[in-house]
């Protein structure tokens, strides 16, 4: 009987969660303060004691319950449940939907630049006035 058909094979569940998180056995081993061989043996174990499971869950960034209740079907159902309610029903990125007018944003940026330029110009004028006053005192 393969580990895929055993619904309570905790080691296999840990392995799949680790793989879904794009984590290598070495990375998990380092997080747990052990070696890759120990992780491999653990992932082949059908059961793991509760204390160790808590450490593993913390290292994987999931809850103990998430490990215990993990199933491939639930993962696929989760990702398949996303739907796009906008008009963009084609391939990803096929349509760009703007909720603002791009020219309006451009004009806002131009106005902001004008304000910044005016502030810079005023600061230069103030600096020149200050320097002229210093020169007059000499």
TrEMBL record:
Coiled-coil segments: 103-133
Taxonomic lineage of the native organism: Bacteria, Pseudomonadati, Bacteroidota, Flavobacteriia, Flavobacteriales
Residues of the HTH cro/C1-type domain: 14-67
Listed GO MF terms: DNA binding
Name the UniProt record assigns to this protein: XRE family transcriptional regulator
InterPro entries listed in its UniProt record: Cro/C1-type_HTH, Lambda_DNA-bd_dom_sf
Keyword match Coiled coil: yes
Keywords of this entry: Coiled coil
Native species: Flavobacterium pectinovorum
